[in-house]
Amino acid sequence: MAFGAVRALDGVSLTISPGECIGLIGHNGAGKSTAVNVINGGLTPTGGSVEYTLPNGGTGRGAAVARSCGVRSVFQELSLCPNLTVEETIRVPHRDLGGFGWRKTARKRISSALDRVFPGHGIDPGATVGDLTLAERQMVEIATGFAEGSIAARLVILDEPTSSLDSAVAKQLLDHVRAFCAAGGAVVFISHMLGEVFDVATRIDVMKDGKVIVSGAASEFTQQGLIDAMGHVAGLKAKAATSTGRGSHIGEEVLTTPDGLSARRGEIVGLAGLAGHGQAEALARFFMSRSAGLRHTRNPEVTFVAGDRGRDGVMALWSILQNLTLTTLPKLLRGGLVDRKAEVVLADDWRKKIGIRTDNMNNPILSLSGGNQQKVLFARSLASSAPIVVMDDPMRGVDVGTKQEAYEMIRQEAEAGRTFLWYSTETDEVIQCDRVFVFRNGQISAELTGTDISEENILAASFEMHEAAS
Questions:
Q1: Same domain assignment for residues 419 and 276
Q2: Could you tell me which residue ranges the ABC transporter domain spans (predicted)?
Q3: 182 with 267, same domain?
């Protein structure tokens, strides 16, 4: 599969059979999303072909045949329409919904799917998509992929399906994937969360530079073996920093909020707990309180790394370079005009630092994979002069190797005096922090420091208030 001179896929060969869950892994830009769009018929291959087996045993090609074979996709970049209700969104992929009474049928389909995949979800089918949290939108999109319809789902492609879900909700999805495959369905599971891949995959295919370089039964691999196969020198997973002297650089208090959050200069403060319990809202309130007004333009107090890049981060019509340098433009002004040479140097420097996979920073931002778009947003904030960095689940869709580099970069910036407020749904990220506030029902249920920052304590605090109220 080629886009002009760029070969996104090179000789990829995949066979997917009923009952299989294929774990498809690789670094950002390895070709996974392109492979997905070729499999589901969204892209017509420039070489080779994709053949589907119909329910009656016949075969065919093309997007229409893919749909009639029950091929469905759940994309990393969520594709729900924000102005529609939950029940209305299912009508977009389910083309049989129409005529008198379609809304009642749509409501039943999405409600039933949400109940099966995410028991206790609490999502109203009549709610407007734009009013849902990022995690709830991801749950709706996943449920739509598994929902019943006139054509049953036979192959569901999940591209980073748990990137916005906390561990409890992610476990519900993994349980459903196993049950779906046990009943004869098939799943292509794309994730940078290697533990999840091992939980559900029967076979694992490793992609690199548009090729499948390793393929085999999941039982034949170890997590470190997969990382080695991907060709990155990063370690298996994040570990809390325990080096001598950690925290010695932390200074005076630089922020407090009505929510009870506080942080000191050079401190990395984590926000944890089940998704949708007020963490993102607390960050947004603090950011807005410190960023409004013209005086913050040239000398910003705070900068923001969005987790929902489609809604809050990426300028879709701009280039990679323009997206990256947005927060630093006031510093690049010379006589009222942007110094384009300095802008290019700055962007190229961060491209190398954070490993953005592109050969031309003037390419559109949407030409990048989702993980590489997230790297641009991360670089945009770190390139600014703001002493406080607010991060709303910033590693969504970023590969394990790049995460390790980002953790080290955050630690270095903190040691130089920068303060971080970091919300994450991943425990491996939260334990990087010097202090952690656990949220439950919009309130702080625990403050953890030092050796108390552990998965067990975070989970206990996440459920403590709920148990007390019941």
A1: yes
A2: 1-234, 236-466
A3: no
Residues 97 and 210 in one domain: yes
Least confident of 202-206, 216-220, 236-240, 340-344: 236-240
Q: DSSP label at 50?
A: -
Question: What pTM, to 2 d.p., does this model score?
Answer: 0.65
CA dihedral 83, 85, 88, 90 (to 10 degrees): 100
Here the CATH number for the domain that contains residue 153 is 3.40.50.300
Question: Which domain range does residue 329 map to?
Answer: 314-384
Give the chain's domain count. Answer: 3
Same domain, residue pair 178 and 326: no
Tokens (6 digits) for 349: 């420097």
* 396 and 380 within one domain: no
- Mean pLDDT, rounded, for 63-67: 86
Inter-residue contact 306 to 377 (CB < 8 Å): yes
Could you tell me which residues are beta bridge partners of residue 215? 205
pLDDT at 26 over 50: yes
The set of residues, in sequence order, having a beta carbon less than 8 Å from that of 183 and lying 6+ positions away, is none
| pLDDT on residue 237 | 39
SS (H, E, C) the chain: CEECCEECCCCCCCCCCCCCEEEEECCCCCCHHHHHHHHCCCCCCCCCCCCEECCCCCEECCHHHHHHCCEEEECCCCCCCCCCEHHHHCCCCCCCCCCCCHHHHHHHHHHHHHHHHCCCCCCCCCCEHHHCCHHHHHHHHHHHHHCCCCCCCCEEEEECCCCCCCHHHHHHHHHHHHHHHHCCCEEEEECCCHHHHHHHCCEEEEEECCEEEEEEEHHHCCHHHHHHHHCCCCCCCCCCCCCCCCCCCCCCEEEECCCCCEEECCCEEEEECCCCCCHHHHHHHHHHHHHCCCHHHHCCCEEEECCCHHHHCCCCCCEHHHHHCHHHHHHHEECCEECHHHHHHHHHHHHHHHCCCCCCCCCEHHHCCHHHHHHHHHHHHHCCCCCEEEEECCCCCCCHHHHHHHHHHHHHHHHCCCEEEEECCCHHHHCCCCEEEEEECCEEEEEEEHHHCCHHHHHHHHHHHHHHHC
CA 34 to chain centre: 17
Residue that is last in its domain, among 339, 364, 384: 384
Number of H helices, E strands in the chain: 17, 20
- Taking the C-alpha atoms of residue 55 and residue 152, their distance in angstroms, rounded to an integer, is 10
